[in-house]
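Fill in residues.
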């Protein structure tokens, strides 16, 4: 049903609903413990649906209400445009970081994926 066919007072309610896939992505983001991260691909694999691009799109559109910095790129680079906020959160949570080389653009660290990556193991029993 298109939004134009909805009653005027129902449009706002309809617009506030998250797509079911987006709800599931955001639930996974909330499960990630402080100081740990999952990649966009990890989240898709955990859900057994979609892929990194779909997870990234959900996080871009709806991720502001969850710990978005815990869902990251596979290479550990900080989210462009949000580097300083992410870095602040990583440092506050004790997320393992790799210091940037002098040659790297902006000299920003990356997430140390070997040490920070979370596989969901501690919470796997609750996963459905």
């Amino acid at each position: 049903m298109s939004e134009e066919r909805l009653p005027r007072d129902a449009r706002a309610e309809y617009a506030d609903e998250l797509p079911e896939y987006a709800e599931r992505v955001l639930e996974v983001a909330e499960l990630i413990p402080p100081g740990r991260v999952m990649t966009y691909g990890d989240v898709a694999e955990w859900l057994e649906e979609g892929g990194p691009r779909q997870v990234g799109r959900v996080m871009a559109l709806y991720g502001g209400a969850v710990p978005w910095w815990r869902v990251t790129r596979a290479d550990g680079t900080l989210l462009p445009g949000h580097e300083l906020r992410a870095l602040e959160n990583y440092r506050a949570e004790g997320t393992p970081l790799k210091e940037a080389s002098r040659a790297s653009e902006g000299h920003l660290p990356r997430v140390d994926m070997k040490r920070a990556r979370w596989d969901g193991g501690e919470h796997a029993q609750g996963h459905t």
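The first helix runs from residue 8 to 16.
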